[in-house]
C-alpha cells in the first residue's frame, strides 16, 4: 500500500491557542506537523522562528517537518535540529551548496529534503535525487497561505516520480500549497506521498474530521 501522509501546516493555526491546536493534531490522524519558516527575503512574508519552534518541541508528539523558505539555510539548520526538527527541507533556489547542506543535515540524524518552486524544473534534481529523503514540490508560489493550487503540479509529480525511480531513490514526494478535499485524492493517485494542508484543515469546523477525509 502506498504512503498517504497528511502534514497540517501550523502557519494556519491559531497562534493565540497554539498549544491547543498542536494537541488537537496530536490526537488526530495527522502524520506530520508542517512548520513553514519564512524570512521576508527569500519570500515576501515573515512567519515564525525559534520561539515558536520551542513551543512545538514542548508539545508535539508527531513527526516535525520543517520547511525553510529562507536564504542561506545552511546557517540555521543546526539550530532547527536542536529545536526538534525531524526533517528539514531547503529550497534548491536558496542554497548554493545544496549537496553539502543535505548531507550535513543527515549527518545529524535528521532527514533532509529539497524544495522546488513552481517554476523550477524537476530535472535540476538529477544530481541530488539519490541523496535526499524527500522532494517538496510547491504547488503555489511560496510566501502566503490560502493560495490557489497550480495545476501544472500534476505534471511535476509525474516527472519527479520518474526521476526517483530511474535513480533508485527512496525519496518521498510532498506537495505544499492549495491542497484541499477536492484535490487530495487526485494528488495521492498522481504519486504524492505527503500532502501539506493549512487552511483546508484549520478553517473547518471539525479539523480532525477534515484530516481523516484528506487521507481517504
UniProtKB/TrEMBL annotation:
Active site residues per record: 36, 176
Catalytic reaction annotation: D-ribulose 5-phosphate = D-xylulose 5-phosphate
An MF annotation (GO) of this entry: D-ribulose-phosphate 3-epimerase activity
InterPro entries (UniProt xref): Aldolase_TIM (IPR013785), Ribul_P_3_epim (IPR026019), Ribul_P_3_epim-like (IPR000056), RibuloseP-bd_barrel (IPR011060)
Binding site for substrate: 9, 67, 143-146, 176-178
Pfam family, one: Ribul_P_3_epim
Cofactors required: Zn(2+); Co(2+); a divalent metal cation; Mn(2+)
Keywords attached to this entry: Carbohydrate metabolism, Isomerase, Metal-binding
Segments passing through the bilayer: none
EC number: 5.1.3.1
Cofactor: binding comment: Binds 1 divalent metal cation per subunit.
CDD domains: RPE
Pathways per UniProt: Carbohydrate degradation
Binding site for a divalent metal cation: 34, 36, 67, 176
Job of this protein: Catalyzes the reversible epimerization of D-ribulose 5-phosphate to D-xylulose 5-phosphate.
HAMAP family in the record: RPE
Family according to the record: Belongs to the ribulose-phosphate 3-epimerase family.
Name of the protein in question: Ribulose-phosphate 3-epimerase
